[in-house]
Amino acid sequence: MKDIELNDPYTTPYRGIYAICDKHNEYVEIVEHSNCYGGAAWSKFHYSHSPLILKTRSIGNMVRYLAKTGTCKLELKPSVAAAGIESIIVDKDEVHITYAGLGGGGVGATKCRAFAQGVLRCDYSESGGGRAARGKVIVPRRERVLIGIDDTDSKETGATWTLTHNIAKALDCPEAVYLSHSLVQLFPVSARTQNCVSTVLEFGCVDAISTKELLESIKAALLKYSVSDETGMVVLRNFNAHEIYPYSRECRSGELSREYAVQYAIDNGVEIWLNGNGVIGALASLAWFSRPDESIRMDAEINDP
């Protein structure tokens, strides 16, 4: 038998909490990176009923809440409505999120989130037992940066999805948080390496400087490690990728030309950082950010997140 010592037995800090905002601060996606998915799943169920929450999704041990900004009144009730998000306020370069909960839900709403990575400041009340509790966390305001990449390997060497993940992991930092990675199945064209799969990386960046440094570093790493002369890298700085949906459907159902892909990118505000033949698949991948379970299926239909 082992005699264990727990410094704080009733606190399980989240790994990280991040807030991705649209350009007008009308919508925000709160991304909670959990150390205990059981607790996060409980929160997901209850928080999904908060008036501010539009949609919830789980990806691995991350729970993502698509929400509108503002304040609402929560009617907390044991078991059926025990916790929720009470307000989401954007103040310049910060996002203030107020959680509320009863009993164990109050513990999760306060200390567990207050001590997460990425939290700048916090303010929380006593929690646990039969008490209602509130906790406010202040996190940096971030904007979404999507990087589509394809054609970094050869028939003999490498795989694009492994290279891109390793690059993203190496560049993950507080100013540019690595949020998701999706493999996107494309139409099996004649020029494919093997499986005809591209990759999209998703980052949450705090400002233009960190975004520029991130993108320059990714490009430099691709030039260093890619074994192909046709690598494509495209970038979309936007809250969503709606404009790419039609193109992605085309790329997953037939063979397209590089010229068509480049023109589509230009017409829809997508930056081309490496313009090899891989831009065709790289552009298609943008539509599937944070959808790794769907993006690998050719019969999956892209819809709004």
TrEMBL record:
Matches recorded under InterPro entries: Methan_mark_11, TiaS-like_TCKD
Tree of life domain: Archaea
One Pfam assignment: TiaS_TCKD
Domain TiaS-like TCKD: 147-204
Protein name, per record: Putative methanogenesis marker protein 11
Organism for this UniProt entry: Methanomethylovorans hollandica (strain DSM 15978 / NBRC 107637 / DMS1)
